Amino acid sequence: MHGCKDIILINKDYAYDTFITLKEEALNRHEETHRKYMYALNLRFEAAEHIGIENIRNHKLAQLTNEKENARIEYENGKMLCPEFKPILIVKMAGRSLRELLAQASREGGND
Q1: Residue 106 belongs to some domain of the structure
Q2: What are the residues whose beta carbons fall under 8 Å from the beta carbon of 68, sequence distance 6 or more?
Q3: How far apart are CA 2 and CA 4, in angstroms?
Q4: Confidence of residue 4 (pLDDT cuts 50, 70, 90)
Q5: What is the pTM of this model?
Q6: Distance between CA atoms of 80 and 78, rounded to whole angstroms?
Q7: Could you give the angle at which helices 4-49 and 98-107 cross, rounded to 10 degrees?
Q8: What count of Cα atoms within 13 Å lies in the side-chain half-sphere of residue 18?
Q9: Which of 33, 38, 67, 95 is the most exposed place for a label (fewest CB within 10 A)?
């Protein structure tokens, strides 16, 4: 039988573990997206270096350099995740304590 404090700790552990898993998945997706974008951007740099007219080439390379810096900043900002917890169900129990309900459930075998 679990006490009220035990249930709170179990829920905190579950929420933390769930958040860590979701955070890792989100960071992996973010990193993969950035990696693909940088690969495409590098191909555009290579193509721009072959532009024959110097001032057009320099202008295009400057644009791409600016785009690359903006992508780096966006990538770094995207690595800072903030959890957002939204209450899905709020229940107020009246009449019997949680301990009494758990005791009854264990006596009944916990089958619903």
Answers
A1: no
A2: 38, 41
A3: 7
A4: low
A5: 0.60
A6: 5
A7: 100
A8: 9
A9: 95
Q: Could you tell me if residue 18 is inside a domain? A: yes
Q: Is residue 63 part of a domain?
A: yes
> Does 108 fall in a domain?
no
Q: Which amino acid is present at 80? A: M
Q: What is the total residue count of the chain?
A: 112
Tell me how many domains the chain contains: 1
pLDDT for 8-26, tens place per residue?
A: 777 777 778 888 888 888 8
Pairwise CA distance, residues 17 & 82, whole Å? 15
38, 71 contact by CB (below 8 A) = yes
Tokens of residue 68, six digits: 């690359």
At position 24, the amino acid (one-letter code) is E
What is the residue-wise DSSP string for 51-108? -SSHHHHHHHHHHHHHHHHHHHHHHHHHT---------------SS-HHHHHHHHHHT
- What does residue 42 show for φ and ψ, rounded to 5 degrees? -65, -35
Domain span at residue 61 reads 4-83
